[in-house]
Amino acid sequence: MVTNCTPNPVISRLEEQREAQVEFVDNLLSHVEDDGGRDLVDAEQGNLVAARERIAAIDAQLKPLREFETLRASADTATTRAVGGGARVTERAAPSAEDGPVYDSPGALLLDRVRSFGAPKIGIARDPAAAERLTRAVAKMTTAETPGILPTPIVGPVINIIDARRPLITSLGVRPLGNIPGKTFSRPIVTQHTKVGVQTAEKTELASQALKVESLEFPKATYGGVVNVSRQDIDWTDPGAWNILTTDLADQYGLATEAATATAFATGITQSVTVATNDLAGWATALYSAAAKAYAGGQRMPDTIWCSVDMWAIMGAVCDTARLMLPPRADGNGGTQDITSFSGDVFNAPRIVAPLLPEKTVIVGSKSLYEYYEVQLGLIQAIEPSILGVEVAYGGYAASGFLEPKGFCKIAPAVVPPVETQKAGK
User: Fold this and answer.
1) DSSP category for residue 246
2) How much is the pLDDT for 88?
3) Where, by residue number, does the polypeptide cross the bilayer (predicted)?
């Protein structure tokens, strides 16, 4: 008997499932950390509990299987018998007819080879039967003949190509909305200030102007998604459909709120400047001009630059072409362009790359002049016992708006003339 070195397929499958659960947890925690180190929402906590329970169940199945394999390895040795002189040989099963011809000795094999060609000079005639024995084809069996027993393994976690981070919302800061009642709420804002001036003469009237305080309205919006899933889909799938479903709902909520905020933020800014030339001098002039306009409109020094991905590429190419090392911040972080990361500073201001901003968008301003409020309801589920189903939803409320839209300024990219015009020198 020959030792069986083939891995146990059940153990291999369970170990792959366990590894997939561990990788799922690692990806979930990495996602949370990339999203600004926030707390876990209810759906994510539920996913962690489900993954932990699945790992424990897999370990319980693996323990007796591994113990059995250990016992098998200790007993699975070749059966041998003694022959003369103390030598031992391994017993083998008798060859079957389908294994082809069996020769008792090398000499018998050589004799059949001679007979297959014939040797008249030594009196050996050609024997077609010998030629047939040497050339007889053995039937081949490939995977084409056994499709019914070929497994289709699922390897690794589910591939989910999505970037659910919210760089724009994270940069603006999330204010709590949970304790604010009503469909809308308002923020008081001074629209007319008092006046102070030089007294023209003794006992003359001082400058006077009433203080006006009006309100900015913040309407609430509801975001959410729902899926009705069968109990069988939850219990029978591997990797588990439940973990994948709830994570994807949370990711889609993040994308929806980021996209809505990016659109409102970009379209609400009306003032802009244009980059005259697509080089360092042109961009430096435009950035400082935009900063001056933003300060004049909002009375706050700009502290952030937001840009879309295409403008990140243009700004980075300009800097790298000139081999520029931008000045680092006071804390020693940032200060460089990097093709492997969206992070970095431009003229000592943090640059936030928000992929869901409209194309050709660069905004300079103070993040304190735009407010974002939110409460995430998280995962909501309802059992449907009559059909063995579960309806699961994920949602939340959000509201956002400008305190002063003139505290921001857009930068329009330089208009590059057509190639024909450049060649003509026009």
Assistant:
1) H
2) 40
3) none
State CA 121 to chain mean position distance: 80
Helix axes 9-34, 42-75, angle to 10 degrees: 150
Report the pLDDT averaged over residues 79-101. 45
167-183+219-424: CATH class: alpha beta
Q: What tokens appear for 179 in the block?
A: 């304790």
Q: Residue 85, by phi and psi: left (phi above 0), alpha (psi -120 to 50) or beta?
A: left
- Helical spans, DSSP H, in 35-105: 42-75
Q: In this predicted model, which residue has the larger pLDDT, 269 or 42?
A: 269
Task: For residue range 190-217, list pLDDT tens digits in order.
Answer: 889 899 999 999 989 999 999 999 999 9
Integer Cα distance of 182 and 215 in angstroms: 16
- Please check the confidence at residue 240 and state whether its pLDDT lies above 90: no
127's CB contacts (< 8 A; 6+ apart) are 112, 115, 116, 118
> What's the chain's length in residues?
426
Pairing of β 349-353 and β 304-307: parallel
Q: What residue segments make up the domains of the chain, in order of their start?
A: 9-72, 167-183+219-424
> C-alpha 39: how far from its chain's center?
19
Cα atoms found within 13 Å of the Cα of residue 89, Cβ hemisphere only: 6
pLDDT of residue 83 exceeding 50: no
Phi, psi torsion values for 124, nearest 5 degrees: -110, 115
CATH class label, 9-72? mainly alpha
With bands split at pLDDT 50, 70 and 90, how would you rate the model's confidence at 79? very low
DSSP code per residue over 107-163: HHHHHHHHHHH-BGGGTB---HHHHHHHHPPPPP--GGG-GGG------SSPP----
What span, in angstroms and rounded, lies between the C-alpha atoms of 392 and 227? 6
Q: Residue 424: is its pLDDT beyond 50?
A: no
Containing 391, the helix (H) or strand (E) segment is strand 389-402
Q: Which of the 8 DSSP states describes residue 77?
A: -
The structure tokens listed for 261 are 């905020």
